[in-house]
Amino acid sequence: MKIRNLTRIAMLVALTVALSLIVIIPIPATNGFVTLCEVGIYSASLFLGPLAGFLVGAFSGGMIDLLSGYPQWMIFSFVIHGLQGLTLGFIYRKWPNFKGMLIGFTLASLVMITGYALATALLYTWPAGIISIPSNLVQNIFGIAVTMLLYQSLNKVFSKLQYH
């Protein structure tokens, strides 16, 4: 991996953690919370590929849990958000069009929602795992919407920079 890409990934992890710690919406039923984490993960996956998506997802997810007082979730978040980023990045790299993006967002969201439902069931109870599904669905829909706006804006900026 080139130093330039490693630097970009580290900056995206830092930005994702910072933004996610600014906006934390607690979910008392699952002792969890909703954040802007998906925006950083999805942006890294689309712009930098599956490995970057995995690294940004894994490290930002784990650090957010640690720094926000939910260390019991760290390992789960590392794996779940890492796989979430890897999934979108892999699919979009294979099909770099709107259809690939849509399929990637859908499968990456399913990875995250299913992963957290299982992790919540393991840490607490299966009803708590089921209760976690709607808030994780909302987090993904919001993250996808913000990512799409960001992606479209940055693509316009990058394309103008390439031609001037």
| First-last Cα distance | 28 Å
Radius of gyration: 15 Å
Number of strands: 2
Number of domains: 1
What's the CATH C level? Mainly Alpha
**What share of the residues lie within helices?**
over 70%
CATH topology: Arp2/3 complex 21 kDa subunit ARPC3
Specify the biggest β-sheet: 2 strands, antiparallel
| Mean pLDDT reading | 91
Strand order of the largest sheet: 1-2
- Along the chain, the helix and strand elements come as HEEHHHHH
Portion in strands? under 5%
Keywords: Membrane, Transmembrane, Transmembrane helix
Pfam family, one: ECF-ribofla_trS
InterPro entries: ECF_substrate-spec-like (IPR009825)
Protein name: ECF transporter S component
Protein described:
The chain is mainly α and 164 residues long. It has one domain (3-155): Arp2/3 complex 21 kDa subunit ARPC3 (Orthogonal Bundle), CATH 1.10.1760.20. The protein is built from six helices and two strands. Strands 1-2 form a two-stranded antiparallel ribbon. It is globular and about 50 Å long.
